[in-house]
Amino acid sequence: MSFLSLTLLIFLPLAGALIIYGPWFPQNEVKIRRFAKGFAGFIFVYSLLFLAFFNPTEKGFQFTETLTFPDGSPWIEPLGVNFSLAVDGISIILVVLTTFLVLLGLIASKFSITKRHKFYYSMIFVLQTAILGVFTAKDLFLFILFWEIELIPMYFLISVWGTGKKEYSAMKFVLYTFTGSIFMLASILAVVYYNYIQTGIWTFDLNTYTYMKAFTYPTLFGILTFLGFFIAFAVKLPVVPFHTWLPDAHVDAPTPVSMLLAGMLLKMGGYGMIRMNLQMMPEILKILSPLIVIFAVINIIYAALIAIAQKDLKKLVAYSSVSHMGIVLLGIGAMNIAGVSGAVFQMVAHGIISAGLFMIVGVIYLRTHTREIAELGGLGQNAPKIMYFSMIIALASLGLPLLIGFAAETLTFYGAFTSNVFNGFYILNQYIPLSIRLLTAIAIIGIIFAAIYILWMFHRVFWGNMFDKWEKFHDASPHEMVVLISLIFVIVVFGVYPAGLINIFAPTISSFMNLI
After folding, report:
1. Is the Cβ–Cβ distance between 509 and 337 less than 8 Å?
2. pLDDT of residue 1
3. Tens digits of per-residue pLDDT, 424-481?
4. How far apart are CA 40 and CA 42, in angstroms?
5. Which of 34, 362, 370, 404 could disulfide-link 495, Cβ–Cβ 3.0 to 4.6 Å?
6. How far, in Å, CA of 390 to CA of 371, rounded?
7. How many Å apart are CA 168 and CA 151, to the nearest integer?
8. Mean pLDDT across the stretch 26-35?
9. CA-to-CA distance for 352 and 404, rounded, in angstroms?
10. Are 106 and 121 spatial neighbours (Cβ–Cβ below 8 Å)?
């Protein structure tokens, strides 16, 4: 449709940032906040139009557009770099998730952000532009450009409005991500150069390396390139042992930023793995799938055990994120339609659930100024709305049937259990009898651990005797209720009717998995 432009979609938030931070916008907290929420709402509605006109049965990318100079020449002609944007079934659902969570994050900012409002809301919009750029980039150069731009606003959002060791956590996040990006850049240049050797054409067009891929990579070259991509995306996902930046960033970030960090930024890692490691290099993923699945199982079990030991609410939710993103990695390693579909579904489900969990933590911290679980208790007596909202989100996190978490986890584990990608593997000529079915069965134990730390946390915070100092603990405000009800609506609707989401991205996954 002529009125739908991905270029407009990704640069609308940047325009909003310029309007807010420009000298023509008044220095008024209420007006800034209202404009930001209204503008984010408009962007969300505009993104829904792309979803409404998206054709799930059409193979490959849709809404493709390429910007050129007035004379028709591409962006960086000698290298074959184009400012090219497009979406398929996977990216369109992540685009809508991003615009939805940014809107809720801005609504949640009312009581969490008390200073430098112009700078804060403009940085949120710059972050949104960067993430939307990552999900819509159809050019590898453009992909890594937006990937790097995301570091700038996130650094300021943590270091300026965070608490505790906020500067340390922000810098740690930047260093980890930037280091991973170096490996990704090396891998991108390697595949582009290899394509040039094979075809004599310089191109960074993502479609050339995915849907229209015409060759396979030599094994050693492919493994090294694959590992470069994997390290970059493993940092973002995050994968143990590249995960240590995440708990620090979550603990020290303000509540809305934690919501966006868990809900959107971690999905960049999963999206990159599907697009580059799976879709671009399936023959290498098949060789390394035992390694990927083992990493996934370690992620699920190790992070869940660490979550059980946490005494800080935010750290518990942070390690819960690490554990649940391990399920995404497991689905990718399964290399079948059900597993990869489950991985994408899990990214969406985790984005919604984790945003809700961090919102609950923020609501509690705003009233008590503590996140220590031992110092809380009985809060449900004075705040039944918060308690019941928290209960639904918590139950979704542990995988209760008819909620979105159950649908996503079940599809992923089913895909992994029915995968035949390996039934054992060799290391230094030594046969290791670890099948993907056995590893999946071990990973499922993580669901039991999730039930332990989620129910333990919920019981300690909302039930039992209430400390006298929390007698004035008040229930949810209208702003908080809007955020929580919106998230719960998605959790319930797509838990009861998961096909509403699956039918959007499953045909895309089927189309490229059938080529593997």
Report:
1. yes
2. 57
3. 777 777 787 788 999 999 999 999 999 999 999 999 999 888 887 888 888 889 999 9
4. 5
5. 404
6. 15
7. 14
8. 84
9. 9
10. yes
Q: What's the CA dihedral at 174, 175, 177, 182 to 10 degrees?
A: 130
User: Which residues share a beta bridge with 372?
Assistant: 312
In tens, the pLDDT along 303-314 reads: 999 999 999 999
Among 359, 388, 307, 390, CA closest to 483: 359
How much of the chain is helix, strand and coil, in % rounded to 5?
A: 75, 5, 20
Residue type (1 letter), 145: L
CB atoms within 10 A of CB 113: 23
Residue where the block lists tokens 């999963």: 270
Is 425 within 8 Å of 290 (Cβ atoms)? yes
pLDDT in the model for residue 433: 79
* Rounded Cα distance, 389 and 488, in Å: 8
Q: In degrees rounded to 5, what are phi and psi of residue 205?
A: -65, 120
CA–CA separation, 341 and 347 (whole Å): 10
SS (H, E, C) 233-286: HHHHCCCCCCCCHHHHHHHHCCHHHHHHHHHHHHHHHHHHHHHHHHHHCHHHHH
Task: Give the pLDDT confidence score for residue 163 in this predicted structure.
Answer: 85
State how far the Cα of 27 lies from the Cα of 31, in Å rounded to an integer. 8
CA 479 to chain centroid, in Å, comes to 24
Question: In this predicted model, what pLDDT tens digit does every residue of 223-255 receive, in sequence order?
Answer: 999 999 999 999 999 998 998 999 899 889 999
Least reliable range by pLDDT among 16-25, 132-141, 426-435:
426-435
Q: What is the CA radius of gyration of the chain?
A: 22
Pairing mode of beta strands 83-87, 62-67 = antiparallel
